[in-house]
Here is the input.
Amino acid sequence: MLTNEHVSIVDGAVLYDDGDHKFIWLGWEEEEEEGFVQV
Here is the structure.
């Protein structure tokens, strides 16, 4: 699991895109200390 201590990513940034798959960073959930990715 990623923690916000290790990564700083702009919300809405495309993490990965190979033409068939795209992962978009949605942002941190502060209470859960988890990040969300749209696939």
User: Anything to note?
Assistant: The chain is about 0% helix and 45% strand. The longest strand covers residues 22-29.
